[in-house]
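One such given next:

>
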Amino acid sequence: MAFTTEVALDYLRGANDRGRLAHAYLITGAAGSGKRTLAAEVAELVNGSPAGKIFSGSASDVHLASPESKARRISIEQLRDLEHSLQMRATGGRRKVAIVSDADRMGTQAANAFLKTLEEPPNNSLLLLLSTIPEVLPDTILSRCLAIPLAPPRDAALSAEENELIGLLRAFDPAAGGVHAAYKLVQDCLRLLGTIRRRIQDENEAAQKLEETRYKNTTDGAWLEKREDHYKALAESLYLHERAKLVEILFLWWGDVLRVSTGVPGRELAAVQAATEAMANRLTTAEILRRVRRLEELRDHLGRNVQEALALEVAFLNVFRF
């Protein structure tokens, strides 16, 4: 059963009032489901720091870990620093809180290092792990946290490109899988990315021209050149954000495939149910996990600004070829 953030917070508030709050919670849900919001509210509940400051790094005795570096991984060094911070005495009787965002981005060594903290939590501490794909976490981590699954946002509207990618996944036939099928899927994705880039460029060019028309008689050329650089940077930032959303759709679908394979209820992409089940029935759980890891490598490579088309082609051949 998935909860809204409001219901989940009421549940945790009641547990806290009764002195029954667990030492570790795994808050799961799709992007936009409110994982960070719930974590901030719970941290405020037990620590007293305003929720708005929790993720700013300015809240006393609230310690954060999230993917860093070009690899977008949570390193073993980060988690050791987190554990060391939790061992310190809290100020003013506060409860110490550790929040690990994107916990599924922990490597094997990092997860093993954090396991000790979960097994022997420091006194007066609360551990909150946030994850979009908890199924890729080791069982040793999952078994030591109480799960708080959050429902997807009711008003989350997908873009036309996201809906088209979902349609491509729905139509993908693993029985016909091969190099040709995987290559066709990646070419369709590159086409979607091209559409996104052109749309963003057109919107930014229109905004820039409007700005130039308004201010060309009142500003010098240097100012307009700076605005041109601004719009170029803005277009690239928006494109990378939209590209990440398409990659997230792939993660959501393979997460559903993994849930079907392991008998875990709940689906992120109900519209692709038949294709999800067909894929799960064709692959072992180990094979599904291997393909999820290849998607993680794709996300890492894209974060390093490698050649986009090549990174996608290699990843799709590994993930969708049979």
Notes: The beta strands are 24-28, 62-65, 96-100, 125-131, 146-149. DSSP finds eleven helices and five strands in the chain. The first strand starts at residue 24 and ends at 28.
